[in-house]
Write a structure and sequence with these properties.
about 20% strand; transferase; 7-stranded parallel sheet; alpha/beta; about 425 residues; 4-hydroxybutyrate CoA-transferase; NagB/RpiA_transferase-like; 24 strands; 8-stranded mixed sheet
């Protein structure tokens, strides 16, 4: 059948498409800013028709209305990463959290978590009947491949990010044309603390390095201090607007990358329309599945891979908690460990945990022991550098005693005496 004929025959409304979802189905939703909000709104409006529909995704950037208490019998959220709109549902028992390294999620869709329905957003098809998944390829592409039913919102405002982001029209079972602005992630506010952290991190980045950056004020602050660097590259699970500025300034060229030279390689994107316009039909930008981008064995093929992530707490042994406060799940592991281990195996690679030394000046983030119940995200065996606004602590290859001293030196001055007392008690020596 001609793809254009197939397309026309499978056109429907969002209201009609979501009626094909059945009670008990597992519905995998496209990630982050690739979330098909129009389809989710129609699904929630049809809530009375469902019981125990499982909604699976990572970062939810939309309203997350299916997590509201009134829909507890209709929907149950299963999160790989907990966000603002989904956190209460997990904490209050109306949802679940599934721990997973980011790069392993696609494999779970063909093993432990078979997919009934994939709800995604795509570009209009090209002349060959191919659509791009745009800003969300990560696990979204595999969800399309594995799902029994694929519901796609076709949105002309989605940027084209081929060739590894493509799905054929005949892979889409329900096609819903609906144009709307993509969800945008506003640039974070960068204060003096973040600037100090950014400057320390930038000191560990050599010319020609390939960068992985997380989300938030600290990664964006790092970018502020890279303007004097040369020929940086990007191999990262995501990037945002700050990378666009450095690319346009000629700082990021990808010229010295040892894997995929000349290319920005990412799994998903979060930012403003400026970012989306930059990547649209840009041959130098490749969005690829996360089981490629975040695979530590692939990451390690980039020489001088510098991984920069943030965290909640670091204890004096170098254990890192990045996803919980005590037992309360507040986010997820994401790609942190994928890149920490990939950087460790990279020739010249470095991984950095960057964080403010305190929570609003009141609680130290460098602690004798992680909070009771906290999950260890990055182990003490994996940790490399820890950075606060007070400096850099190099932990790789250091003894527990040396680690503790290095961490105390970059703790907030108000908390150093207490940490020194713990040091002397634990190691039976004067600080």
């Amino acid at each position: 059948m001609n793809w254009k004929t197939y397309y026309q025959e499978h056109l429907t409304t969002a209201e009609g498409a979501v009626k094909k979802i059945k009670s008990g189905d597992r519905v995998v939703v496209a990630h982050a800013c690739g979330e098909p909000s129009h389809l989710l709104e129609a699904m929630v409006a049809n809530a009375d028709a469902y019981r125990n529909v499982e909604i699976v995704h990572m970062v939810a950037m939309g309203k997350g209305e299916y997590c509201k208490p009134e829909y507890a019998d209709n929907f149950r959220h299963n999160a790989f990463f907990v966000g603002g709109s989904t956190r209460d549902a997990i904490a209050e028992g109306r949802g679940d959290f599934t721990p997973s390294f980011f790069f392993e999620i696609p494999r779970q869709f063909s093993t432990t978590m078979p997919v009934d329905v994939a709800m995604v957003m795509v570009t209009p098809p090209d002349e060959n009947g191919m659509c791009s998944l745009g800003v969300s390829v990560d696990y979204t592409l595999e969800a399309v491949k594995q799902a029994k039913l694929v519901i796609a919102q076709v949105n002309p405002q989605m940027p084209w990010t081929g060739p590894h982001s493509l799905v054929s029209v005949d892979e889409l079972d329900c096609i819903v044309e609906y144009e709307a602005p993509l969800i945008e992630l506003a640039p974070p506010k960068i204060g003096e603390v973040e600037k100090a952290i950014g400057e320390h991190c930038a000191s560990l980045v050599p010319d020609g390095a390939t960068l992985q950056l997380g989300i938030g004020a600290i990664p964006d602050a790092v970018l502020l201090f890279l303007k004097g660097k040369k020929d940086l590259g990007i191999h990262s699970e995501m990037f945002s607007d700050g990378v666009v500025e450095l690319a346009e300034a000629g700082v990021i060229t990808n010229a010295q990358k040892t894997l995929n030279p000349g290319k920005f390689v990412v799994a998903f994107l979060m930012g403003t329309r400026r970012l989306y316009d930059f990547v649209d039909h840009n041959p130098d930008v490749e969005l690829r599945p996360v089981d490629y981008v975040n695979n530590p064995f692939i990451i390690a093929q980039n020489d001088n891979l510098i991984s920069i992530n943030s965290c909640v707490q670091v204890d004096l042994m170098g254990q890192v908690a990045s996803e919980t406060i005590g037992p309360r799940q507040i986010s997820g592991v994401g790609g942190q460990v994928d890149f920490v281990r990939g950087a460790s195996a990279s020739k010249g690679g470095v991984s950095i945990m960057a964080m403010p030394s305190t929570v609003k000046g009141k609680v130290s983030k460098i602690v004798p022991l992680l909070d009771e119940g906290a999950a260890v995200t990055t182990s003490r065996n994996d940790i490399d550098y820890v950075v606060t606004e007070y400096g850099v602590a190099a932990l790789k290859g250091r003894t527990l005693r040396q680690r503790a001293r290095a961490l105390i030196e970059i703790a907030h001055p108000d908390f150093r005496d207490g940490l020194k007392a713990e040091y002397e008690k634990r190691f039976h020596c004067k600080y």
